[in-house]
Amino acid sequence: xxxxxxxxxxxxxxRAVMAEDLAARGYLDDPGWRAAVEAVPRHRFVPGxxxxxxxxxxxxxxxxxxxxxxxxxxxxxxAAYSDTTLITQFDGDEPDWKHPAARYGGAPTSSSTLPSxxxxxxxxxxxxxxxxxxxxxxxxxxxTALACERLGSAGVTSIEVDARxxxxxxxxxHDCGHTPTLAVADGQYGYWPExxxxxxxxxxxxRAVPPALVAQTRPGGKILxxxxxxLYGYARVLLTVAGDGTAEGRLLxxxxxxxxxxxxxAPAFGNPAHWAAGPPGKxxxxxxGPERITAATEExxxxxxxxxxxxxxxxxxxVGEVVHLVDVVSGSTATxxxxxxxxxxxxxxxGGPVRLWECxxxxxxxxxxxxxxxxxxxxxxxxxxxxxxxxPQLPCLPLPSP
Length: 402
What we know:
Layout: H1 5-24, H2 31-39, E1 48-56, E2 62-68, H3 73-80, E3 86-90, E4 103-104, E5 108-112, H4 115-124, E6 133-136, H5 142-151, E7 156-160, H6 163-175, E8 181-184, E9 197-206, H7 211-215, E10 217-227, E11 235-241, E12 247-252, H8 272-276, E13 284-285, H9 291-294, H10 298-310, E14 314-319, E15 322-327, E16 333-341, E17 344-351, H11 356-369, E18 379-383, E19 386-391, E20 394-398
Parallel strand pairs: 6-7, 6-9, 7-8, 9-10
Antiparallel strand pairs: 1-2, 2-4, 3-5, 10-11, 11-12, 12-18, 13-17, 14-15, 15-16, 16-17, 18-19, 19-20
């Protein structure tokens, strides 16, 4: 790929500035990763992306504006070298970046993850020279290029479920001189032809640890992945695989979230009003309000994952001030209405075989009684009898069957 000299000069300058900023914030303590950031031209991996605007349509959906070099060269290049996640695809539809159009709403399905998080992932996975690595979720190919620059292409395998996305990433990687093993494959099954691996790092999230990933990791090797679910609770875990095929590891702190693997995405559940119109059950005053799991705090982020492990098939929707929980497997519902208790509070009505909010409240009660322990105090155990989240002061929480 031939680029104008001024573009490459400007890009090199912006890369140096980005590397300096990342280093000052503690993300580039390893000289090898700093050299990789300074060498890999991120702009070649993002010919176009979407940035949100303040505009909304009649349904309240965000207007996403396409950004390319042809539309606004300065904005495109500056964003490419910012520590920002750049959305490159919605709803699985690959844009035509030669003739891009604005769009409203939609679910992001591919992106170029912010560089600081990419570096944090490689560091958290304890990737070292000589390791063979499987990356799940090639995306734009930028993180793959950093790994190739740091480890050499021969040790890097990257898989992507979207063939069109992989084709674009492969072109950019090869144009930059990198030749990792690339394949169109579903991340939940890993990639047997190149196994076993010393490290597996996933740039998407799963409801539970895919057994194939454990089987494809060498004894003593590590798997870094994000667990998620239909309540949009997230937890990152670094697992160490034992010689008997089991794996264990502590949850990691922070509020990192990733798009779900497409096979693990939450199903559409329909109209909340239809669910609320079912057998309402008898109203009662809720011991805990929904803000315990919906507030924009680190504790709520963590709690949402713990609750999700107890009611894994449940989704949440807010209509006006009313909060609905619906379980698409059992048909159970819970509707929380504000103003039902002393001093305000919430009223809850539950229907179906599972008392959803009662399950949530039991988790919250136990969590409070245990002193509100943080994620780093939990251990995920992957054994023949299933996958369980363990804590010395709390009941064992199973993950959904993978």
